[in-house]
Write a structure and sequence with these properties.
It contains two helices and six strands, in the order H-E-E-H-E-E-E-E. By secondary structure, it is of the alpha+beta class. It has one domain: Nuclear Transport Factor 2, Chain: A, CATH 3.10.450.50.
């Protein structure tokens, strides 16, 4: 069965289709083990990415964080439940969902997560300027 990266968002929020597609594509890329080269390009050059307690600034550090995300995981699948824009045509969002893991050791895990995202459009392409993910890293073990 194929997995959908669609999500709910408030009616009347007028989320731009390009922003919806950005989030859908990003989480699909997040679930792709060989996506290391593309992953940092979803962030601005000077972006800040905070994953639990790890802070990464700039694409080089974001790439290292991305590689670390796959160090013990052989597969992952994000389900985004809802995305909440701050207001009409806002570039700031809160979102939440769940991620399922398969570990290289053979076990499985699930973690609820929430995030805060600030997007920036550069030459017609949306990227994260700031992205913080809140999750219980203890549930990944």
């Amino acid at each position: 069965m194929s997995h959908s990266y669609t999500f709910d968002y408030p009616s009347g929020s007028a989320m731009q289709p390009e922003v919806i597609r950005f989030f859908q594509d990003f989480y699909q890329l997040s679930d792709t083990p060989d996506g290391d080269d593309l992953y940092p390009t979803r962030f601005t050059e000077d972006a800040t990415f905070i994953l639990a307690s790890r802070v990464s600034r700039g694409r080089a550090e974001i790439l290292e964080t991305r590689k670390g995300m796959w160090a013990t995981v052989s597969a992952r699948r994000h389900t985004v439940h809802k995305v909440f824009p701050f207001g009409k045509d806002s570039n700031e969002f809160m979102l939440h969902g769940v991620v399922n893991y398969t570990f290289k050791t053979g076990g499985q895990g699930t973690a609820d997560w929430a995030g805060k995202a600030v997007l920036e459009e550069q030459d017609g392409v949306w990227r994260f300027k700031f992205y913080q993910v809140y999750l219980d890293t203890g549930s990944q073990k």
